[in-house]
Queue: 3 jobs
Job 1
Amino acid sequence: MITDMTDDSPHTGDITSLPIFDTTPRPDEPGNPARHAARRSPREILSAFPTSTTPPPPPVPVEAPPTTPLLPPTVETLHAAQPAAPAHDNGPGFGWDMVRIFRIRAAERLSTQITNADKLTDAQRRARGHQIIQDLVNEDASERTLRGEPSLSIEDREAFAKAVYDALFGLGRLQPYIDDDDVENVEVYGADQVVVERSNGRLDFMPPAADSVAELNEFLQFLATRGGARERSFSEASPELHLNLHGGYRMAAVGWISHTTVITIRRHRLVDIDLDDLVQRDTLTPDMARFLIAAVKAKRSVLVAGGQGFGKTTLIRALANAIDPLEKLGTIETEYELLLHKMPERHRRIIAWEARPGSGERQADGSRAGEVTLDQLVFGALRQNLDRMIVGEVRGKEVLPMFKAMQSGAGSLSTTHAHSARAAIERLVTCAMEAGSHVTEEFAYRQIAEHIDIIVHLNRRDVRTADGTYRRRYIDEIVAVEPGEHGRPALTDVFTDNGGGQVTRGAIPPQWIDDLIEHGYDPTGFQAGARA
C-alpha cells in the first residue's frame, strides 16, 4: 500500500502543537485543579526527558495502589481497544491508544515532580519516570476494581507499563527490536511494514510500527525535538532527519520528498573493539592486523573504503584504539558515530565535535540559522593543539575539511564509500570537485597523493543457507599511496584477499620499512608474491 503523504502528513514543524502534548482537559473529563495547576509548557516537559533508549530498571512490584481516581469513568478501559498493527507482542489486553493516553499522564506527573532546579542524571529521571508509570497503572487498576470493571492481569500490567515507558523514553513500538542483540538494522516503510535485518543478514518482515503516516511523522518530530542542545527538526521544510540515539543507534528518516515516510535505524553493535577482535571475527589476518597497528602508531593517514554496512566505522574504531591513549585526539563528524569519546580508558584526551544542520529557511549565503559546518569545526579544532584529527565519513565536499585535517598533522583516519581501493581515489576527487569550480582535478589528486598513506578496502560476502545467512565482512585490499608522476597518486598493493581466505602479500614501500620496524612490525619474508 502506498500512503498518500499529502493527506497523512502533518503540516507543522512545531512539536508543541502535536496532539501527543495536548494537555487541554476534554469536555467529558472532570476538572481537577490539583492536576492542572502545576503544569509546565510542553518544551519544559521535553527538557526533562533524556534521549536514552536504555531499557528501564527492573519492574517495581505491583502493590495495592491509592484509591484516588487517575482516569475518569468515561475513559475507555484498557480492554477496549486492541493494537491495530502491533510491532511486537506486548500483551493481548491493551491498545496503542491507551499507551498514548498514559504517556501523556506520565509526562504531566513527571513535569510536576521535577523542577528546573533538580540536578537529576538521565538514569535518575528514567527511574523517576518508571515509578510514575507504575503508580499510574496501579491506580487505574484499583479504580476499575472499585467500579467492578475488569482490569489487566499483573503480567499484562507490567507489559503495558513497559510499553508506556518505551513510548516516553525510548523508540515506542520499535523499542523491542532495539533491545534485541541480534538485530543490526531496522527499516520502517510508512504504515506498511517493518523490515528487521539480523546480524547474519537474515531479513524478517514485521507488522507496521504506526497506524498512519501522520502518526509516524509525529513520532519523528517528537524524537527530533527531544535532542536538547542537539535539537533537530522534521517537517516539510526539513524533510530529512539524522539522529544519533543514546545506546549506539543511528537513525535516518525521510518524508514528504519520498513516496512515504521511511526510517532506517542502524545499530553500532561493535563499539569497544580492536584489531585483535576483528582478527577473531575473520575480518583480517593477524599479519594484516600487525601491519595496520604499526602503520597507525607510525602516524600513517588511513582511508577506509567500502559499501554501506560493510563495517567501515567499526574498522575505524579498531584502528583508533591502536593509538596511544595519551595522544590528544579530535573527532569531527556530521553525526556522532565513532563514539571514541565514550571510551575514556582508551582515549584519555579527546574532543568530539558534531556538526549542526541549523533550522528554518536558508539564508542568502545558503546556510541555516544555527548551522555549524564541518569546515568551521576543523578551523576551530586547529586551535586545540591536537596530536591527531579524525574526520568521519566523507560523502561530498566535506572531503576538503578532511584534507585540511591531514595537512595539520599526520595520522588521520576517515571513511568513504567505494567499491575498491582505487575507486576510492576517484570518489574523493569527485567529492572535492563538488565544492565548486575553485577546486580543480589536479588539486584534488595532489592532496590525495600527499596526505593519504594507506587505503583499506572492506568487502562483504553473504552466503544463503537453509537455516539463514552467513555474512562475512573482510578486508580485501590494503594499498600504499605515494606521490607519483604529475602529482597523481601512485599505488602499491600491500595485501589482497580473494575472498576465499587466500591472502597475498604484495610489497611495502622501501622508505616505510624502518618506520614500521620501529613501531613493532616485522617485515621479514615480506616479498612480492609471498603468502600472508
Note: The chain has three domains: 5-175, 177-267, 275-518.
Job 2
Amino acid sequence: MLQGFKAFISRGNVIDLAVAVIIGAAFGAIVTATVDHIVNPLLGAFVPTGDLSSWVLTFPGLFAKVNFGIGAIISAIINFLAVAAVVYFALVLPMNKLAERRAAKLGVAEDEPAAPTQEELLAEIRDLLAAQRGL
C-alpha cells in the first residue's frame, strides 16, 4: 500500500503539480497585494468612499438596511482578470507558440482533414451495400 503511494508521489507530474500550486499561491498573493494596494486606491478616487474594496451600496429593507459590498466584488473581478491575463500571456500563449513551432518542425499540417465520423462511415457502408445489391 505504501509502495503504491510512494510510486504515485514520486512521479514527475505530481511533483510538478505541487510546485505549480505553490508558485500559483505565491503569485496570487502578489496579484492580490497589487490590486489591493495599487489598483483599488486608484479606482477609489472615483467611488464615494475613497476605497474601492469598502464601497457598499445600501438599500432599504423591510426591517433593516441591506448592504451590498459591490466594491469587494469589483476588486475580486479585477484580481481574477489580472491573474487570467498573466497566466494567458506568460503560459498559454508561449505554449501555443511552442506547439506551433514543434508541429512545423515535424511537418505536421494544421489543416488536415478530419477523420470521418461513425455515422459517415456507416452511411458509406450502407451505400456500398445498396450498390452491390443493385438497389
Note: Residues 2-133 form a domain with the Non-ribosomal Peptide Synthetase Peptidyl Carrier Protein; Chain A fold (CATH 1.10.1200.120).
Job 3
Amino acid sequence: MLLFIGCGSSNSSTNSSDCLFLNESLGCDGNCSTTPLKNDECGICDGDGSTCEGLWNVYYDVSVPIAGFQFEVNEGNIINASGGAATEAGLSVSNSPSTVLAFSFSGATIPPGTGTLISLEITGDSNSFCIKDLVLSNIGGDSIPAIIENCNTIKYSE
C-alpha cells in the first residue's frame, strides 16, 4: 500500500502549517511543495518579471547645458515620461511607447551636472531596457556629443 501525504487537503491553502512534510513550504499558489512557487518582482505568482509596471530612471552626466533630447527604448513600453531635470528645467516632454522627446519652447536648458534626466513609467522587464538612438542638442539646435553607459546613463563625450 502506498500512502501519499502532502498538504492537509487537496484544496489550496493559505497557511504554511498545513504543509505536513518538514521540507515542504507553502507557495504563492497556495500549494505545498519542496520547490514552492514564488512571486516575481511584479507580484505575479510564478511570473518571470516581464509584466512589471514601474519607474525606470534615465540619468545624465554632462558639462554643457542640454536644450533638448530624444531617445528610444529598446524593450517594453513607455507609458509616461516625466520628472527629473527635464521637468525641473521646464522642458516640454512627450513620449510614445518607445520614444521620448523633450525640448523647450522658451529656450530653457538643463544646466551642466549629474542627476536624473527623466523618469519613465514603463511596462516590461526593466532589466532588459536600454536607451538607443540618442540625440542631445544645445540651445542653438546643434548636436551635443554623448554616449550611453549602463543602458540608462547619458554622458557627455568631448
Note: The domain at 53-156 is CATH 2.60.40.680 (Immunoglobulin-like).
